[in-house]
């Protein structure tokens, strides 16, 4: 079995692959009907309300599965580094969160258990949003089930729109650019708040038919990708109608929007509870992102539950994953609106598909580009973002910046092959 190294930590992944191949997996311990089995779930920290909600869901699971206790292990910093180190040392949790962005690299080490053999027809795989589920597939096998997701939508300030004489949110990028000019007031208020990062702009990069990645190598310096970004850069450098949060002293796009420094931003579901808690007086709406070249597009970010291939309690671990990503567990987890359910039936039951603010986010799931494109994406992201920012700031031409970034990315990729 040939394993590739995980690009985000090549040395760690190599050690992982080595340790997993040098011997057989430990035999699963016998789980008596009368003895309780304790399994561990690792995840990162959220806000206090989210953590309480998760603990409530885990408590419900334990009540319905009296032979299983779940210990939640919260990792606050350097999440993936900690997970990989624990996998190497044989101390990783039985079940843990895995971002789709990191999934391909870790799956290829053999550290994650394929889940197909555990699934029965009652689990209803067809109920998941296809793009979110596919993010955890490799060679036809399912290695995780998505617990939640968010797409990007256009958040717009209704008061500022009314003052500018704009009756509805823009439907095309051309309309957005024209509206941004009307909404901009010098350097006090920008029409559009932006995040010049590939994770937010990937769908835009391919809008002219170009490819950011081809066969696990960076190809984002091609002319089609460069042309795709020109309108985005021109809004900042030529029109002076777009700015990133740091340019106005804000820490995020949501904060920039809430402070009134941007009339529009492209943000995810996370911005809705943030606005409610931090800027409750701002009257705003959401809409699907404007089309580019007549095509709808957005990004989608998802996280799944996966099983440690070395877990000694695989049956109990699957029962936990099955509950958390099943209809009952997912409904409770997403009921407060902090995240969107990856099951279509749950989204419909909770009314998110018709919700005034979340509806556009749910609609985007059907055509969104999931933030994942193979095991080399972390290397490509780092190099792209470093050089793209210099072009966004007007320090150098975009084509030159991306050529240098592509060259460096492929140099680093070659080292991992």
UniProtKB/TrEMBL annotation:
Pfam family, one: SBP_bac_1
InterPro entries: SBP
Entry keyword set: Signal, Transport
TM regions (residue ranges): none
Name of the protein this chain belongs to: ABC transporter substrate-binding protein
Signal sequence annotation: 1-23
CDD domains the UniProt entry points to: PBP2_UgpB (cd14748)
């Amino acid at each position: 079995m040939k394993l590739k190294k995980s690009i985000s930590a090549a040395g760690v992944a190599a050690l992982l692959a080595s340790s997993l191949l040098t011997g057989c997996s430990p035999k699963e311990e016998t789980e008596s009907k009368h003895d309780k089995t304790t399994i561990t779930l690792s995840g990162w920290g959220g806000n206090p309300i989210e953590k309480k909600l998760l603990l409530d869901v885990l408590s419900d699971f334990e009540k319905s599965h009296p032979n299983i206790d779940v210990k939640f292990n919260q990792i606050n910093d350097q999440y993936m580094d900690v997970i990989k180190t624990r996998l190497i040392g044989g101390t990783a949790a039985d079940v843990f969160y895995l971002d789709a962005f990191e999934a391909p690299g870790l799956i290829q080490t053999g550290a994650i258990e394929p889940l197909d053999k555990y699934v029965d027809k009652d689990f209803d795989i067809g109920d998941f949003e296809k793009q979110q589920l596919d993010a955890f597939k490799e060679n036809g096998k399912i290695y995780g089930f998505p617990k939640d997701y968010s797409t990007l939508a256009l958040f717009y300030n209704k008061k500022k729109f009314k003052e500018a004489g704009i009756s509805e949110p823009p439907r095309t990028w051309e309309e957005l650019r024209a509206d941004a000019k009307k909404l901009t007031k010098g350097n006090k208020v920008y029409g559009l708040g932006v995040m010049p990062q590939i994770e937010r702009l990937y769908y835009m990069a391919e809008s002219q038919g170009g490819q950011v990645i081809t066969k696990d190598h960076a190809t984002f310096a091609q002319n089609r990708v460069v042309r795709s970004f020109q309108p985005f850069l021109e809004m900042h450098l030529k029109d002076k109608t777009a700015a990133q949060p740091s340019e106005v002293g804000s820490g995020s796009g949501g904060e920039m929007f809430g402070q009134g420094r941007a009339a529009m931003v492209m943000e995810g579901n996370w911005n809705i509870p943030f606005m409610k808690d931090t800027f409750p007086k701002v009257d705003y709406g959401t809409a699907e992102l404007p089309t580019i070249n007549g095509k709808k597009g957005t990004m989608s970010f998802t996280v799944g539950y996966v099983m440690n291939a070395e877990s000694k309690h695989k049956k109990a671990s699957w029962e936990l994953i099955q509950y958390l990503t099943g209809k009952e567990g997912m409904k409770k987890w997403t009921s407060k609106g902090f995240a969107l359910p990856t099951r279509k039936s749950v989204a419909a039951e909770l009314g998110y598909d018709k919700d005034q603010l979340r509806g556009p986010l749910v609609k985007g799931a059907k055509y969104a580009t999931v933030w994942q494109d193979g095991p080399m994406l972390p290397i490509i992201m780092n190099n792209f973002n470093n050089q793209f920012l210099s072009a966004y700031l007007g320090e150098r031409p975009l084509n030159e910046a991306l050529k240098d970034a592509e060259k460096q990315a492929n140099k680093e990729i070659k080292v991992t092959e």
